């Protein structure tokens, strides 16, 4: 194993015992008083009372040097204490919380006295009760609430339960993260207000009985291990310096597990403008799409829908005709703001209702009827005439799904096909209203005359309106381009003129490649999102094949380390692809620019690329060989996360295929040897290209550089020589951060050389590459180097 697992709890206590500020027996704290909390030696953490608005006080542990006093643990989250409540370390070694009347709110240990000689608040954030000999008798790390801290492990059966609301209500909420007794690590929705498990929306998928403990080490790595210490599944694979940052992993109130950092320099200066920032992709990446349980409301409350924002955080919204039950708690769901259709006389009320469209929207598992082979107009009318129908979902397959309230699992996302047809009451019309009868003859006569005149005028008006709108609509059809969604995918079909306007006449060039040029643009939406438009060169045969391949391949992929395809244009001779815009450009510019990128950032980029390739090779619905992995085809988003782009050279394999034959593709220097031997190629050609790219990331130089010494011109050859001769420090001699991390340098170089073996059968697949990079499995010695190197 390459990971150094954290020490056991007992060993950690003996280490901490040297710096404890012991809290003696009979010591106490009172809620609402001026007495100081119990603080760790460095002042990083405090134990005491935190006020929660006007609701009461939490007995909690928090980051003491951060202005917002972020809470990481609490004792009484479901039973807040009031002013005057007191926590005391009794003579029997019990930690007891009583309210102002003497009622016991919380006690640890729960069965009799612990025999503790003192309590302590160490710099780890783990509050302990310890014996005179320093043996840990109880610790807060064993009873987490919603947060894990570095060196805090999650044992079998332990769980995190999200808070109900962020920074407002810390009581147990709607989600939990648990290491089950069967060894699987799972995120569940709960049967709120109970904490029993409901729907599993994320899982490591570990073999039954294999998972033993979740490790969260001091470098920020979180992973599931077996009882023998073997790494089973990584959860977070970030490298964070706890000397420079505070670090925590929290199951947030929205059900997403996130890892956060806060710079210690900002806390020491009292900078209130700083905030916690995420350092990895959240789990799951899009919770809106993950929760589709038969029971429960979904990621948001009933009759609402979930949308992932630009900040990658989910928000809950109400559909047309609905409003929040509680604007201060959006996850309570939505209610109708109109009177429902009268089921005794539904046909009489059809004209009182209308349909509001919501594209890319669905509420799964609320169907009571499905009709096939119908058109959208039929689906609309069917819902309008059915008093049970609240929403109809119409998709491109000609299916009409009828849904009743309460609606659950609501989601709006570009990946959702079809559209929602929401039935709402028109204007100010009310249900069951009828004109009052009047038996005065003169009023009847007057009303009849007025009614007759009104009808005549209305008919004339309607005819005029019809003629006007018919002409206007025909003109509009000429002016406004019609958008279509590619079948089985949710990609926009743009017209050429639209993309020409969006790019300002293809003015700003971002880059170019073998099959086309990429331009910067902005969509004409309200928020004007930036896009990258790839304009494919006019070429016969192969060009058209490349276009169709790229559209089909990227349209079916969805991964955090792949560039997302937004849409396309296939109009006459014009073939264009529209991607999400990557603000930090290509890895080539980032890596080979004027300044050397940070070592840890380079290694994180290596992880990102490896995971993206693993997805393409093994995890998406079609196995995909990219065929042209190189720095120019790796783009960086606003957070410098790496995204694999340009699938124009991809070779799509069916699920039962493992290899294929095709003409040589790729870029010189990154092309695997089997291409030149006219052999069937496999996903190993991407492994080879990744190996070259990994060496470039480690050494921060190009694969071929004629300005170097003769022995250093070809990077792969030089790296092999350095490894054989035990001189790996030469590869990173000008990189101070890398030279301080030579164990990882050696591991990454070994992995790279394994990837570039001439015989593809000797190189690893990307799954094993990821495991070796993360330290989950041992790095084997490359065959041609076994006589020179001892196994890592």
From TrEMBL:
EC number: 2.7.11.1
The keyword Kinase appears for this protein: yes
Entries under PANTHER family matching the protein: G-TYPE LECTIN S-RECEPTOR-LIKE SERINE/THREONINE-PROTEIN KINASE SD2-5, RECEPTOR-LIKE SERINE_THREONINE-PROTEIN KINASE
Name of the protein in its database record: Receptor-like serine/threonine-protein kinase
GO MF term list: ATP binding; carbohydrate binding; protein serine/threonine kinase activity
Subcellular location: Membrane
Residues noted as binding ATP in the record, renumbered to the chain: 535
